[in-house]
Amino acid sequence: MIARPSTDLKSYLVDLAAAVGGAVEESDGDVLDLALPEEVTTPAGLNDFFTVTLSRDAADETDGAEYVTYGSAILDKLVGIGLNSGRILRLRAAVPSASMRVPPNLMQRIERDIGFQKCRRPSMESAAVELHQQMVFTFVVSYVSDEKFTDDVMVAVDRRTLGDDTGLLDDQAKLYFADAGAYADEDDNPQAPAHPYSEVAARAADILIERALPEYMNYQRQAALYCQQELAKLLGYYHETTEQLRSREVAAADEDRRARLAAKIQATLAEREHRSIDLIERYRVYASARLDSAAVRIMPKARVCLQVQHMRETLHQDVFYNLASSSVEPIVCPICHARSATMYPASAMAEPPKGLGADFVCPKHIV
Q1: What does each C-alpha distance from 27 to 12, 52, 107, 133, 205 come to in angstroms?
Q2: Helix axes 73-85, 197-251, angle to 10 degrees
Q3: Cα–Cα distance between 116 and 277 in angstroms, integer?
Q4: What's the start-to-end Cα distance of the chain, in Å?
Q5: CB-based contacts of 99-106 (< 8 A; 24+ apart in sequence)
Q6: Distance of CA 341 to the CA centre of its chain
Q7: How confident is the model at residue 9 (pLDDT cuts 50, 70, 90)?
Q8: pLDDT tens per residue, range 117-137
Q9: CA–CA gap between residue 254 and residue 92 (Å, rounded)
Q10: Is the torsion defined by CA of 367, 211, 85, 37 positive or negative?
């Protein structure tokens, strides 16, 4: 449904070069030579002229080229250039200084909004205020068959956990965000750890597919209904035409005439198959997406480290209270990155993943 990753990366590199006043030369299908201005390459630790490849095979065959893929260090640098050069805003939630503290009744709110199944009541080990980054992407998704429809899809990702924040956007709709400026990170409160932008972008692409798929299937069902109606008419026409030709073939007394009618029948059947394929293809729905805009939104959160007792196990879980929206955020599952207000001990899974590095998972992983 969505374009191949290498195609997306190539488009990004071409657009990035154009946005910063650079140039791209495609020496091969998967090999790109880039020339970017010094003012954007120097802060990123890149040369002004460099070569990248979009496939592992091309990287092995091209001397001095770097392989660009999701999660690679060079892609993170290139995305960083885009953040400083493209249509990306850095916004800061306006929170009164008096509210930049851990609320005194926070444990009551956590116990009300978060449930740890098969566990005793949690206790707070520590709490501190941190600045967190959330990336909000707006994609334009196009659905094309015999007609074209477009839809704007917003996707939000938490940079600390790679959690799907899209469901939190409604709660944040009334918040006021101001331009964070070039020195937004200079703050008395510590910055929360953040995943590289390349990983955030890859996560956003996964969420986009999940959110666009239901609409895509809806358009595909509608198109399939119209296709069936048109196909029934088409097949009915060719069935009638073929039967008439066969009747004439049986009634023909001349052998040459029968041969001509037989050939005409075969040609009619071939035409029926060709036109049927064209009709089905015309009603097939194709979906594509392009990034329209993106924003980094900085919000203060109280990070609460909880201790939770499960049978004889002492488990730990971080919970975040958004000081801007005054809400306890559902916990991000370490496996699927979905948010959930109900969590189960990972030991309750039939087969916990090796190296999970977390004590709780969301209900979908519990049999």
Answers
A1: 17, 11, 60, 38, 28
A2: 100
A3: 54
A4: 31
A5: 99/323, 100/129, 100/189, 100/300, 100/323, 101/129, 101/302, 102/127, 102/128, 102/129, 102/302, 102/304, 102/321, 103/302, 103/321, 106/302, 106/304, 106/321
A6: 22
A7: confident
A8: 999 999 999 999 999 999 999
A9: 88
A10: positive
Q: How large is the C-alpha radius of gyration of the chain?
A: 29
Residue reference for tokens 């730990």: 316
Q: pTM for the full model?
A: 0.69
d(CA 140, CA 151): 6
Query: pLDDT tens across 36-95, in order?
Result: 888 888 888 899 899 999 888 888 888 888 898 877 888 888 888 877 665 567 888 888
Dihedrals φ, ψ of 285, to 5°?
-95, 125
Helix (H) or strand (E) holding 227: helix 197-251
If one compares 19 and 326, the residue with the highest pLDDT of the two is: 326
pLDDT, one tens digit per residue, over 253-291 is 888 888 888 999 999 999 999 999 998 888 888 888 888
For residue 185, pLDDT over 70 is answered with: no
Query: What is the phi-psi region of residue 118: left when phi exceeds 0, alpha when psi lies from -120 to 50, beta otherwise?
Result: left
The single residue listed with the structure tokens 């954007």 is 40
Token couple for 98: 């008096």
Q: What residue ranges in 169-285 does DSSP mark as E strands? A: 177-179
* CB-CB contact of 38 with 325 (8 Å): no
46 three-state secondary structure: coil
Give me the helices (H) in 70-166, please. 73-85, 106-113
Evaluated on CA atoms 171, 173, 179, 182, the torsion sign reads: positive
Give the contacts of 339 (CB within 8 A, at least 6 positions apart): 163, 164, 165, 167, 168, 329, 330, 331, 332, 333
Give yes or no for residue 149 having a pLDDT over 90.
Answer: no
Element (H, E) at 15: helix 5-20
Alpha carbon of residue 99 to chain centroid:
33
- Say which residue the tokens 């850095």 belong to: 90
- For residue 39, which amino acid is it? E
The structure tokens listed for 338 are 């979905």
Retrieve residue 309's tokens: 């007792």
